[in-house]
Design a protein that fits this description.
Blueprint lengths: L4 E6 L3 H12 L4 E4 L6 H5 L2 H20 L13 H26 L2 E3 L3 E3 L4 E4 L2 E10 L3 E3 L13 H4 L8 E5 L3 H12 L3 E5 L11 H14 L2 E3 L2 E9 L2 E8 L5 E3 L1 E4 L3 E3 L13 E2 L2 E2 L12 E3 L10 H16 L13 E3 L5 E5 L2 H5 L4 E8 L13 E8 L5 E7 L3 H6 L2 H5 L4 H5 L17
Parallel strand pairs: 1-2, 1-6, 2-3, 6-18, 8-9, 8-14, 9-10
Antiparallel strand pairs: 4-5, 5-6, 7-15, 11-12, 12-13, 16-17, 19-20, 20-23, 21-22, 22-23
Helix pairs in contact: 1-4, 1-8, 3-4, 3-6
């Protein structure tokens, strides 16, 4: 049978773009289909615009610190529309860059939704298209529980379109999205209440790190409501009444409710059953090479049940294309995937948490807190934290967890050595650059 394309990629986010470009470089005839702007969630509603907000909020911290360093007349007024419009302008540039990259690679862009007719035939918009192989990379969408008034809440994708910056926020969910936006809006002068069903924010991170961050949020002035869940949202004119349950059950009146309750694979419009693709617990089931239950169809990125991170999605997309069109199947190594939370101070982790490491072998922990030098002259002296999880026998470092300014930049530079079995003695024998926060890692013992 002659197919229209060797490969059709469904979804033009991080995973889909990397898959399409890699397959095209390997000689395949490739099309990529997505009704939304190129770049997916990361470029248009997630990582990139959020990091611009991080930079904006960081200027507030710099102003707060500058007076202790001799600077005067620093008062300024923040203008949300200026920032919002600047971000949107940059996102359009990124979308255009992605389009040029696909054109240069020879990838056909189909700006439509896709539904399966069978494993090789798909309805792209109103047109039927056939493909020898398909890679599904449709990503995820926010979790919205079935609660009264839930449609009155916003999700992270709505923030970058707000006409003005609301002054009172209730954020429901203490994962990385809730913590990041809570810190950002608090620094920008908003009143922030963060409710989370867990006792500590950032479920899934190392316990010591979570304790440090949780207390840090309180010290910054956020109103934290642990072990508290959302019951309902009631519109009251321009305001919202938020009803809660659990440890805190008082109703709160606020300008806006941000729902940061996690994300789930966005599969509802694909008709996967017609293609014979198995879904398990709401995610597409895949093997180590991203193959689904249908041999000609692979799935990558956040629509599967693996690590929902942009760099992982890119790596999975590349590996899937190589599996289909390269000389041999390719796998993604997940053991040393780093993660970061861009709050204040920043959080970065790689490897196992203390609890995870203890499931594999006896460990010892080396933990150190300190006040970074740049805060020594200021009135606020937030503590940084560095934690190493080390195998008791071999002294191999199994996990590294840091709470500090620029912790993501600090941690990722060590990953190649950690992947190759870096030991504690090898780390502490390293001569570091002084004075820096990163040098504290090399003095742990």
């Amino acid at each position: 049978m002659a197919f229209d394309y060797d490969l059709l990629v469904i979804g033009a986010g991080s995973a889909g773009l990397s898959a399409a470009k890699t397959a095209a470089r390997l000689g395949a005839r490739v099309a990529i289909a997505d009704p939304g702007p190129l770049g997916g969630t990361c470029v248009n509603r997630g990582c990139i615009p959020k990091k611009f907000l991080v930079y904006a909020a960081d200027f507030v911290r710099q102003q707060q610190q500058a007076k202790h360093y001799g600077w005067k007349n620093l008062a300024g007024e923040f203008d949300w529309p200026t920032l919002r419009d600047a971000i949107q302008g940059e996102l359009k540039q990124l979308q255009q860059s992605q389009a040029k990259g696909l054109e240069k690679a020879g990838v056909t862009v189909l700006p439509h939704e896709v539904r399966f007719v069978d494993e090789h035939c798909l309805l792209v918009g109103e047109q039927q298209v056939t493909a020898d192989k398909v890679i599904i990379a449709v990503g995820a969408k926010p979790v919205l529980p079935d609660l009264p008034g839930i449609d009155c809440g916003l999700t992270s994708r709505d923030i970058f379109q707000l006409p003005e910056l609301p002054q009172r926020w209730v954020i429901v969910g203490g994962g990385y999205i809730g913590v990041e936006f809570g810190c950002l809006f608090n620094l920008l002068g908003c009143q922030v209440t963060l409710a989370d069903k867990h006792a500590l924010v950032l479920e899934g991170f190392d316990q010591t790190l979570r304790e440090q961050v949780h207390q840090g949020l309180i010290d910054q002035g956020l109103n934290l409501l642990p072990e508290t869940a959302l019951s309902s949202i009631e519109p009251q004119g321009q305001k919202k009444k938020v009803c809660l349950s659990g440890a805190s059950s008082d109703a709160i009146t606020t300008d806006v409710v941000l729902l940061a309750l996690g994300r789930k694979p966005d599969l509802s419009r694909l008709d996967l059953d017609k293609a014979g693709v198995t879904v398990e617990e709401g995610a597409i089931a895949v093997d180590a090479h991203s193959r689904t239950s249908q041999p000609s169809i692979l799935a990558v990125g956040d629509c599967t049940n693996r690590k929902p991170l942009t760099p992982v999605a890119k790596a999975e997309g590349t590996a899937a294309a190589k599996t289909l069109f390269g000389s041999e199947p390719a796998e993604v190594p997940y053991r040393w995937v780093p993660s970061a939370v861009f709050c204040f101070p920043e959080i970065a982790s790689v490897g196992w948490s203390e609890a995870e490491a203890q499931e594999h072998e006896p460990v010892e922990v080396h933990c150190h807190t300190f006040v970074p030098l740049n805060y020594k002259l200021t009135s606020q002296k937030p503590e940084a934290l560095i934690k190493l999880v080390v195998a008791k026998g071999s002294q191999e470092i199994l996990g590294l967890h840091v709470v500090s300014d620029a912790s993501a930049e600090i941690v990722q530079g060590l990953i190649p050595a950690l992947r190759r079995g870096l030991t504690l003695s090898e780390l502490t024998e390293t001569i570091a650059i002084h004075p820096t926060s990163a040098e504290e890692i090399f003095s742990l013992s």
